[in-house]
DNA sequence: TTAGAACTTGACCGTTTGGTCAGGATTTGG
DNA sequence: CCAAATCCTGACCAAACGGTCAAGTTCTAA
């Protein structure tokens, strides 16, 4: 019987088989939820993607909603762990550039995580509004305060710090969520190349640093 | 019987009742597809949103797939009509600012259109790859050429023109697709205020014009 | 006024869906 | 080695799904 433990990926107090299967299922679920949303995803599709019979998915997670919740929690944990990057005493230019690089790494390496999150937001975020209103809001306010402090100290040019963070998010995540669009426009065959991500990263760093007066605008020819 | 005319919204050669109902259904469908994706949307939900019995939806559109196609075509037509904005001989700063304003107007006024499109992209764009690879690709190349021309003439600072357009898109559409996220972080109750859209518009214009050397970077205090 | 075209819709159908379960197989700790 | 715990899964079910249809109502143009 399923001992009523809310199954999550990082629960190390579990047996070997359990851990392996949960990981397999969550990975498959992330992919299927990313590509179909919660309502459009089927447990049968997740089972096939995971290479397990459907009943096995229900054995570990009970319901589709609980599995979705587990996937969401996993993604939020990943998000939060990638957040800590910006610190008070660092150099503005390198700190911003490092943060942009870290977010772009996530877009490149975990696009499905970003897509599940995007799906949830598009639908009005009924299941993650708590996270948005607390952890994320606090993170933005905390980091915006640091930027404002840098501005006050004259270490970067005045800029709307909160909105700068919003738009760094939108620019970095577009390369995960809407990859096909940019691949099509760039003439790639469905998938972007690593150099496309590198070029995008450099561009976003440029646009942000120029805006903050941390990188000179090249003179007009 | 449904005379085999591919029903679309702007078909003015139709009867009054037909036109009204098609409009009602497409509006409802856009909302339901935006919130659930193609697979997650149900014809019953669309019918209820439209205030019509389910059989009536099938009377006008046949299948869910055809209705989705009609909604998609409607959105693409809207997208393309909002594209023509950037012309060769205009002033770079005002042209870019006007384009950003136009895109933000769309995000504010037709968020569901943007969301349906976003859903389709997240899913890998199986039904709009043709549009991405032709019309959109050509538009980007055409407009990027104009930006490059401006740069050559010394009318703006050197910048990766294609990627500038990509990121203008990502920054403007985030305010439609992910509105709840920014509303939550800004402490609004689910919905953004008009002034939030205005502030975002101003910010995006600022970041773009600064990057292009078309607006001075304020001196550090 | 009237006949045909267009529209309406409750009832229905086959399929897919999320979820259950019993009974067997495998793993694990002592 | 054994027995208890855990894992496995084909078969099954009720509900929800996309779609059909026939019988009726309303509209329209002559």
Automatic annotation (TrEMBL), chains A, B:
PROSITE patterns on file: HTH_TETR_2
Record GO biological process: negative regulation of DNA-templated transcription
Protein name (Swiss-Prot/TrEMBL): TetR family transcriptional regulator
GO molecular function, one term: DNA-binding transcription factor activity
Classification of source organism: Bacteria, Pseudomonadati, Pseudomonadota, Alphaproteobacteria, Sneathiellales
Key word DNA-binding present: yes
InterPro entries (alphabetical): Homeodomain-like_sf, HTH-type_TetR-like_transc_reg, HTH_TetR, Tet_transcr_reg_TetR-rel_C_sf, Tscrpt_reg_YcdC_C
Alphabetized UniProt keyword annotations: DNA-binding
Ranges of residues in domain HTH tetR-type: 19-79
DNA-binding region per Swiss-Prot/TrEMBL record: 42-61
């Amino acid at each position: 019987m399923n001992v009523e433990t809310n199954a999550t990926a990082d629960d190390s107090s579990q047996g070997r088989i359990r851990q392996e299967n949960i990981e397999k299922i969550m990975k498959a679920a992330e992919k299927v939820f990313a590509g179909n949303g919660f309502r459009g995803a089927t447990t049968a599709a997740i089972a096939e993607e995971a290479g397990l019979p459907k009943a096995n998915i229900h054995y570990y997670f009970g319901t589709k909603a609980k599995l979705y919740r587990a996937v969401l929690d996993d993604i939020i944990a990943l998000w939060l762990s990638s957040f800590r990057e910006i610190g008070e005493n660092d150099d503005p230019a390198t700190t911003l550039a490092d943060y942009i690089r870290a977010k772009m790494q996530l877009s490149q390496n975990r696009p499905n995580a970003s897509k599940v999150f995007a799906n949830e937001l598009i639908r009005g975020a009924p299941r993650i509004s708590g996270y948005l209103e607390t952890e994320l809001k606090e993170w933005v306010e905390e980091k915006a305060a640091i930027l404002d402090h840098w501005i006050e100290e004259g270490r970067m040019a005045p800029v709307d710090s909160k909105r700068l963070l919003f738009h760094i998010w939108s620019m970095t995540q577009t390369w995960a969520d809407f990859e096909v669009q940019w691949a099509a426009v760039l003439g790639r065959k469905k998938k972007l190349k690593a150099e496309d991500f590198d070029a995008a990263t450099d561009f976003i760093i440029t646009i942000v640093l120029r805006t903050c007066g941390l990188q000179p605008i090249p003179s007009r020819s």
